[in-house]
């Protein structure tokens, strides 16, 4: 996945249409449990993946959802805003969690493990076919340059958390040498996006569990200590989710 992947800077304040009553639809709402905004995003991601960003129109997206085009514009200013919102749906939660973790007095290894676990869960929530969206060529153009800022911040946060974890585990010289490979932790997490194509949810969760354990092994955590680190990380995430009201996709990762 390129650096133009999960990258979206989100402007401060409320998103367009958030917290406001929607406009009338041109067709009855389907009973799928999704808000109109989520239905629009789901339709946009499918059409972007099937026919490309350039060939997809807001009218096609509105027709797919069964709403008027004016209703779509009530939620999103234009097609670009739709794509930015799709990309921000994964990076923004990870950044919020990382900030919270960084403000807590946690063991550095547990802190990194918690971020990896949270980020994997966020990516596994993917309802929007993002593994296709991330490969749209338009993401490499100047029009989307501003959206890359948040991705850079997240990647740098992984690096900072990794260096702190290494420093807590190894002598300075060894920690510095190992730090050269720590981008692999971020890469392991990002690779989970492709698991949508790997045969269903169970395979994706299996990969997530392996990625979590693999991240700790890259740090040099002893195999016997990994279950305890994961348990402590999941407790930290339980505290975070209780504070922000964000339930996990499922009850933690297998620490085995």
UniProtKB/TrEMBL annotation:
Give positions of region: Disordered.
1-36
The source's domain of life comes to Bacteria
Q: InterPro entries, per this entry? A: Homeodomain-like_sf (IPR009057), HTH-type_TetR-like_transc_reg (IPR050109), HTH_TetR (IPR001647)
| SUPFAM superfamilies (alphabetical) | Homeodomain-like (SSF46689)
Q: Could you tell me which residues form the DNA-binding region?
A: 57-76
Start and end of every HTH tetR-type domain? Answer: 34-94
Q: Where is the composition biased (Basic residues)?
A: 22-32
In Pfam terms, one family for this protein is: TetR_N
Instruction: List the molecular function annotations (GO) for this entry.
Output: DNA-binding transcription factor activity; transcription cis-regulatory region binding
Keyword Metal-binding recorded: no
Q: What is the name attached to this protein's record?
A: TetR family transcriptional regulator
Query: In the record, what lineage is assigned to the organism producing the protein?
Result: Bacteria, Bacillati, Actinomycetota, Actinomycetes, Kitasatosporales
């Amino acid at each position: 996945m390129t650096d133009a992947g999960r990258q979206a800077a989100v402007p401060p304040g409320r998103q367009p249409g958030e917290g406001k009553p929607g406009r009338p639809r041109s067709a009855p709402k389907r009973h799928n449990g999704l808000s109109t905004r989520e239905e629009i995003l789901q339709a946009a991601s499918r059409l972007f993946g099937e026919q490309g960003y350039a060939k997809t129109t807001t009218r096609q997206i509105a027709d797919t959802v069964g709403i008027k085009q004016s209703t779509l514009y009530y939620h999103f200013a234009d097609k670009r805003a739709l794509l930015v919102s799709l990309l921000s749906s994964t990076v923004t939660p990870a950044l919020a969690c990382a900030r919270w973790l960084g403000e807590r007095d946690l063991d550095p290894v547990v802190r990194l493990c918690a971020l990896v676990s949270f980020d994997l869960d966020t990516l596994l929530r993917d309802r929007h076919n993002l593994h296709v969206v991330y490969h749209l060529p338009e993401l490499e153009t100047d029009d989307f340059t501003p959206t890359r800022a948040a991705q850079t911040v997240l990647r740098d946060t992984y690096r900072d958390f990794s260096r702190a974890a290494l420093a807590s585990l190894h002598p300075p010289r060894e920690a510095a040498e190992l730090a050269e490979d720590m981008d692999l932790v971020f890469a392991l997490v990002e690779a989970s996006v492709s698991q949508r194509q790997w045969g269903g949810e169970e395979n994706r969760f299996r990969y997530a569990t392996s990625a979590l354990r693999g991240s700790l092994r890259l740090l040099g955590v002893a195999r016997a200590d990994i279950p305890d680190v994961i348990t402590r990380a999941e407790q930290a995430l339980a505290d975070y989710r209780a504070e922000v009201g964000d339930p996990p996709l499922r009850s933690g990762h297998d620490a085995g």
